[in-house]
């Protein structure tokens, strides 16, 4: 990997939103739907989607399609990415990363058969769904 490409990759992770997204993808150890990331980070969908596009273009994440659903996960087949994501996982401690991961765990409790079935819903509706499933809001 040439020096310019390495520098650009690190610049991609230099943005707070992209770093938070990358951390969730690594720390969760599973593929995540955009709506799950949006709810975990409490950010607008366009901001999360833009970050995912940039991470994907940099070769850091991949998406698997399941019908209309897209599930993002770190691209770790590459040794450089594996080391980079290991660093992200170790480096991102404290806030907001801890809260993001807690929020994600609550959101993932709404999955059925390991898949997202909720999609994008207003925060109040999401909280109702969580209470219904017995998830502490």
Q: Could you characterize what this model shows?
A:
This protein is mainly alpha-helical. It has one domain: Winged helix-like DNA-binding domain superfamily/Winged helix DNA-binding domain (Arc Repressor Mutant, subunit A, Orthogonal Bundle). Helices cover 58% and strands 10% of the residues. The protein is built from seven helices and three strands; from the N terminus they run ααβααββααα. The protein has helices at residues 3-13, 16-28, 34-41, 45-57, 79-91, 97-108, 123-132, and strands at residues 32-33, 61-66, 69-74. Helix 2 packs across helix 4, helix 2 (16-28) packs across helix 5 (79-91) and helix 2 crosses helix 6 (97-108).
What's the average pLDDT?
91
Can you list the strand order of the major beta sheet? 1-3-2
Strand content: 5-15%
Number of structural domains: 1
CATH uppermost class: Mainly Alpha
Order of helices and strands: HHEHHEEHHH
Which residues form runs of ≥5 with pLDDT under 50?
none
- Which structural class do you get from the secondary structure elements? mainly alpha
Q: Measure the end-to-end span.
A: 44 Å
Task: Give the radius of gyration.
Answer: 15 Å
Tell me what the CATH architecture is: Orthogonal Bundle
Taken from the alpha-carbon principal axes, the silhouette is globular
CATH superfamily: Winged helix-like DNA-binding domain superfamily/Winged helix DNA-binding domain
- The overall strand count is 3
- The CATH topology assignment is Arc Repressor Mutant, subunit A
Give the fraction of residues assigned to helices.
55-70%
